[in-house]
Design the sequence.
């Protein structure tokens, strides 16, 4: 077992000038990734970054983002990745919790947050990735070009904290899952074994950000470890046709995505026909939400390739179950436990229940170290070496798990966890809204969309469009209600409840 710095160095020695990351016309080889991240680490140390310092990233997925992640790791710091769709108020809450010393972000995000930087009191330095703001912030390019690999290298231990991944609602009580090199390496090895991934694979990553553990660990880091090439196809503003074209061009063998993406692929091909040869794919993986059985069947029928469902959560690093790669698994199941994991289904007193009996799924293995600076929440989640997933499910006599529901009040939207209370708290700050209740409404393509039932204050008028605009200005776009109903006697949540 070794740390992630050593993992990259070993892969760079083995695979050298082989492409590690491809995005459009950009190619980053294994050697380039190792060299550039070492130079960045040297510059970070020169800037005063010490072992254990937290460094936040607010970036879209790109080759530069991968260099930054490994540069942070090599400097002995702790990376704290965030979603670029968060609004200033959400970021303020998250930064107050994580207390990062430095922030890597790009010109697009800077335009939104630059005037609000004084609100992020822990951040002492901002590094600009890309163009713009050259007169105000140090650029990533400057740090890499002027950097020298640190000698001696910072001492790293596999049990050192190296990542804080936030889960739960950022506008109420953010929970940062803390992870060590050991946590990540075990998950990488587990995924490699189950997926039968090798250096011959070309992994397609579409609309799956690497601030999300499914994209970061299961796709990116496992590919670096195996010597696979990872092809990044952005999801924002890019059509499914671009993904299919890239898969054909690069002879992709593996595709990762949330269920919504595979539903989009099916819809596109049924509407437009087969315009690209993607027969190079040997397997596809989906996670982040339960995938409808109809989608699984339709995808396999159209493309003659297995679409394997995985199940996991941020607290378990990534996946803890997975359907067999050969398609021999049971329909409707998310598969058996992956290597290095023990799972069980329990009742409300944490007692294991018989097969085919619904209860909460608990996991034992290389899960998170705990929630960052939150011992109370950690104690509620980790019990006698077992982690409460907060998900209801059952297991059959053959060890196959089935997810049946959520114990916690939460929605899953295109693979993103959304907490209704977050949205309700924002709605309740609107001067025209007296009370609000948020829930999920079924959607054929997305699985679920956000529905808000609101009660207006007497004598104050407000339209649905005005409420949506208000929400968009204050929360990540995927959380915003798509459906809004006005009710006089709705079962609502009032302020302070």
Sequence:
């Amino acid at each position: 077992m070794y740390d992630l710095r050593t993992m990259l160095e070993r892969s760079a020695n083995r695979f050298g000038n082989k492409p590690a990351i491809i995005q459009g016309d950009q190619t980053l080889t294994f050697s380039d990734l190792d060299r550039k991240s070492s130079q960045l680490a040297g510059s970070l140390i020169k800037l005063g970054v010490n072992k254990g310092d937290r460094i936040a990233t607010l970036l879209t997925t790109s080759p530069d983002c991968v260099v930054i992640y490994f540069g942070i790791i090599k400097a002995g710091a702790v990376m704290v990745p965030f979603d670029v769709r968060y609004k200033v108020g959400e970021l303020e809450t998250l930064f107050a919790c994580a207390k990062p010393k430095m922030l890597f972000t790009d010109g697009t995000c800077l335009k939104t947050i630059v005037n609000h930087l004084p609100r992020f009191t822990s951040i002492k330095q901002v590094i600009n990735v890309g163009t713009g703001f050259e007169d105000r912030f140090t650029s990533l390019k400057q740090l890499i070009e002027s950097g020298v690999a640190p000698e001696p290298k910072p001492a790293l231990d596999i049990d050192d904290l190296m990542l804080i991944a936030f889960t739960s609602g950022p506008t109420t009580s953010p929970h940062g899952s803390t992870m060590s090199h050991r946590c990540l390496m075990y998950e990488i090895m587990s995924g490699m074994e189950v997926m039968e991934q090798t250096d011959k694979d070309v992994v397609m990553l579409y609309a799956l950000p690497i601030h999300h553990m499914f994209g970061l660990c299961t796709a990116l880091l496992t590919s670096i470890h195996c010597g696979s090439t990872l092809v990044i196809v952005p999801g924002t503003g890019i059509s499914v046709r671009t993904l299919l074209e890239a898969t054909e061009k690069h002879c992709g063998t593996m595709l990762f995505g949330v269920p919504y993406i595979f539903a989009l692929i099916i819809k596109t091909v049924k509407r437009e026909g087969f315009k690209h040869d993607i027969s190079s794919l040997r397997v596809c993986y989906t996670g982040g939400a339960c995938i409808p059985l109809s989608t699984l069947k339709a995808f396999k029928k159209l493309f003659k390739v297995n679409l394997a469902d995985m199940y996991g959560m941020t607290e378990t690093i990534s996946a803890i179950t997975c359907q067999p790669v050969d398609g021999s698994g049971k329909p409707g199941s998310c598969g058996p436990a992956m290597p290095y994991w023990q799972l069980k289904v329990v009742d409300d007193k944490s007692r294991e229940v018989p097969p085919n009996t619904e209860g909460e799924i608990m996991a034992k293995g290389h899960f998170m170290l705990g929630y960052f600076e939150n011992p109370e929440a950690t104690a509620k989640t980790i019990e006698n070496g077992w982690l409460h997933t907060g998900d209801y499910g059952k297991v059959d006599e053959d060890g196959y798990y089935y997810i049946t529901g959520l114990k916690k009040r939460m929605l899953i939207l295109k693979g993103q966890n959304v907490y209704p209370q977050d949205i309700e708290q924002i709605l309740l700050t609107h001067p025209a809204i007296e009370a609000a209740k948020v829930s999920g409404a079924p959607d054929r393509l997305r699985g679920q969309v956000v529905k808000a039932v609101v009660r207006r204050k007497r004598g104050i008028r407000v339209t649905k469009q005005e409420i949506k605009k208000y929400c968009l200005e204050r929360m990540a776009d995927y959380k915003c209600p798509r459906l809004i109903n006005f009710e006089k006697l709705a079962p609502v949540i009032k302020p302070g409840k």
Summary: Residues 4-173 form a domain with the Rossmann fold fold (CATH 3.40.50.980).
